[in-house]
Design goal:
Layout: E1 2-6, H1 13-22, E2 26-31, E3 42-45, H2 55-58, E4 63-66, H3 76-97, E5 102-108, H4 131-144, E6 149-155, E7 157-159, H5 169-173, E8 182-183, E9 185-187, H6 188-200, E10 206-210, E11 216-217, H7 218-224, H8 247-251, H9 261-266
Parallel strand pairs: 1-2, 1-4, 2-3, 4-5, 5-6, 6-10, 7-9
Antiparallel strand pairs: 8-11
Length: 270
């Protein structure tokens, strides 16, 4: 099996790539410039925003794992160009040069309604207004309508392997989240587990929430990384915001090895 990975040098991809290689997956990596990669990986030059560069990247691959995305920027045009236009270009290249390839795309818990009355479920109506989740949802639709074999994984908050993501949380949530807000979490180890399941075809034709067993409060997460957050006993307005129902993934065979962020902390996996 040869798999093309986009975003392989990013926060998620740089930790997924070595795990796929260790599992014996032949990995081809889309890069825009010379980049240090594991020796077992094959680099191929291309740019998601330059459609003409993508045919060679996808040719003869068995699957595509599309992780590349732009977020946490105020440049809305960049977000939409990367997340929607880039995805459309990759889809079109796959349709022409690798029509039998399985196309697996990463998405986000942020597509769900902040005012939902239950944890976000894959079949919930979703109408995000912020650019990042709205662009990811539009890319999801483009993939679902593509005619390719596809799977979409909506991740909770990805952390672990000393990636610094959890450590950045105090700055990210300051003044924006109630301390009692609970977030769905997922460790990099289990992103890899879910990706291998998707590569096997278990998620074909589905949107699947990927999260561990214990959504955790922002207050606890901030404390876990040694920072402080102002406590509050005020009512929580949006109790299910960024909290996903992951029961579909469990029914399809996904079982997280790192079941809670506290387990990760005890095992030195943060």
């Amino acid at each position: 099996m040869t798999v093309l990975i986009t975003g392989a040098t990013g926060l998620v991809g740089s930790r997924l790539l070595p795990r796929l290689l260790a599992a014996g997956v032949e990995c081809r990596v889309l890069v825009r410039r010379d980049t240090a990669l594991p020796v077992e990986a094959t680099a191929v030059r291309g740019d998601l925003l330059d459609a003409d560069t993508l045919s060679a990247a996808v040719r003869d691959v068995s699957a595509i794992v599309h992780l590349a995305a732009t977020f946490r920027t105020s440049d809305a045009s960049s977000i939409w160009a990367s997340n929607l236009d880039g995805t459309r270009n990759l889809i079109e290249a796959a349709r022409k040069a690798a029509p039998r390839a399985r196309f697996i795309m990463a998405s986000t818990a942020h597509v769900y309604d902040p005012d939902a009355t239950h944890p976000g479920r894959e079949d919930d109506p979703v109408h995000p207004t912020l650019d990042y989740p709205a662009s990811k949802l539009a890319a999801e639709k483009a993939l679902r309508d593509s005619g390719l074999t596809w799977a979409i994984m909506r991740y909770g908050f990805v952390y672990g392997d000393r990636d610094g993501h959890l450590e950045s949380l105090p700055e990210l949530v300051g003044g924006r989240f109630h301390p009692a807000q609970r977030m769905s979490m997922i460790h990099h180890r289990d992103v890899a587990t879910a990706t291998r399941l998707a590569l096997s075809g278990e998620f074909d034709g589905r949107v699947v929430n990927i999260a561990d067993d214990a959504p955790t409060s922002v207050y606890e997460l901030v404390e876990l990384v040694g920072a402080d957050m102002e406590p509050s006993g005020a009512p929580l307005k949006n109790p299910w915001h960024i909290h996903m129902d992951a029961s579909l993934a469990r029914g399809l065979g996904f079982q997280p090895a790192v079941r809670t962020v506290f387990q990760a902390a005890q095992a030195g996996l943060l």
